[in-house]
Amino acid sequence: MLDASFLKNLRTIEARYPDRRSAILPALYLLQERDGYITPEGMQALAVHFDISPMAVHEVGSFYTMLNFRPVGRHHIQVCRTLPCKLRGSDQVTSCIANKLGISVGDVTPDGTFSLLTVECLGSCDTAPMMQVNDLYYENLTRARIDAVLDELKDEDASYTKRPGPDGF
Ligand code: FES
Question: Average pLDDT of each block of 10 consecutive residues along the chain (169 residues)?
């Protein structure tokens, strides 16, 4: 489960801390980068590695919304729901995205392309309302901007699936 290359990266991270258990959080992030989300098997493997219970690993990670303990879409959308964004229309942003994608908050589209969550302040309050899609921020959102961003992401996916493989197919 924790293969040689994963362990090599993990040991590099652990070396930065006086107590290697302080590396649990970045270890969870590494796991998510590798598997798309933190699987129960991955959590179990980290628990064995750090010699703690799987529940203790979960307790560390579940505090942070950037760690996902269930599958998310290729484009994971997180809309800020904290007061400054709320006052500038984050509820409408969330509804607009949910309607456009045909899903509710917490869901993934059936094709696995998008997932939607609402989260606490993402630290970009002066550009409210805003959302994060994977690692990118989209700010000063309006209905037109949301439409444009979602269409752009869908197009990216379409061009990706059409891209020829190594044999030209
Ligand atoms: S309140 Fe939305 S980014 Fe801070």
Answer: 93 96 96 93 96 95 92 96 98 98 97 96 97 96 97 82 45
Ligand 1 site-directed mutation target among 82, 87, 126, 127, most atoms within 8 Å of CB: 82
Q: Is the CB of residue 22 below 6 angstroms from any atom belonging to ligand 1?
A: no
Determine the distance from the C-alpha atom of residue 137 to the mean position of all C-alpha atoms in its chain, rounded to a whole number.
12
Helices 143-162 & 90-101, crossing angle to 10 degrees? 40
Q: What's the CA dihedral at 29, 32, 33, 34 to 10 degrees? A: 130
Helices (H), the chain: 4-14, 24-35, 40-50, 54-61, 83-87, 90-101, 143-162
By most ligand atoms within 8 Å of CB, the mutation choice from 79, 122, 137, 138 for ligand 1 is 122
- 84 ligand 1 Cβ < 6 A: yes
Please state the pTM of the whole predicted model.
Answer: 0.83
